[in-house]
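Figure 2 data, in text form.
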Amino acid sequence: MIDLTEYGLKKNALNSESVELSYSQSIYKLECEIIMSNRTNIQQAAEAIYQSYLSGAPCDPIRDLLPEGDVDAAYQVQNINTEKWLSEGRRLVGRKIGLTSKAVQTQLGVDQPDYGMLFADMDVPGGEEVDIGVVLQPKVEAEIAFVLSQDLDEERLTAADMISAIDYAVAAIEIVGSRIANWDIRILDTVADNASSGLFVLGHQPRKLSEFDPRHCGMIMERSGEPVSMGAGIACLGSPVTAALWLAKVMARVGRPLKKGDIILSGALGPMVPVSPGDVVEARIEGLGSVHAAFGAG
C-alpha cells in the first residue's frame, strides 16, 4: 500500500524543485535578453558616432543607450569603431589621454582619466593650415606629447620603466571635437566618441626628459595674439609622465599595448578653448618651445 504522506511530501518537493527550475530559467532568459539588448544598443551607439564622422553632422548623446555608469560599455563602443577604421585602412600611431584634470573628473563624476586612439590622418604637420571643417565643434588645448623608444607590453610597469621608454617630448596642440551635439557630454559619451578626439599638431623641438621639467614647466596658449589658456605640467594628473604611465598600464591590460614610435598626447596643461575659422593658435611650453595651429577660413 502507498504511503500517502510520503507521497505527498515527495510531490511537494517535486513541485518546489519545478518552481525553482522555472524561476532559474526565467532569470536566465531575462539575463540573456538584457545582454542581447545591451549588445544591440552598443552597436547602435557605435553606428551613430560613425555616421556622425561620415556626415559631419553631430548626433544626440548616446549615454542613454548604455547601462548607467558603464564605462566598459562605452569603451566597447569606441573599440567597435576603432576596429572598423583599422579595417578601412587607417593607421594607428598612438593614444590620447583625456580627463587628466581633477576638476574635470569631478565634473563628470569619474575618478580616473580616459583614453582614445590616434590615427595617422589626425596629424597636421606644422606649418600646414588646419581644415576647421574636419573637426566637429572644435576646441584646442596645449599638451606635452611623448614619443616612445620601445614597446610597453607589460602591465606591471614602474615610473622608471616609463621614463626609460620615452624617446623625446615635444609641445603639442590637440584639436578636440565632439560628435555629440552641443558638447552635451557625460563620461559615457566622450569615451564612446574616441575621447572626443579630432586632430593634433606636434612641435618641432624634441627634447629629452632630462632637458626640461615635465612637472613644473609652464604653458601659455594664445589665440590670435590674446592669452586664452595657462597652466603647467602639474595640472596633468600631477605629472604628464604619470599620466603616460597610467595609459601604458591600461593599454597593456586591455590588449592594445603601446609600441615603439607611438605618440602619447599626455593631457591638457590648461583649459581648452573654442576656435573659429581664421584663428591662429600658439602654445608655448617652458623647455619645449612653441607649436602653432592656423585654422582655415572655412
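Caption note: The chain has a mean pLDDT of 90.
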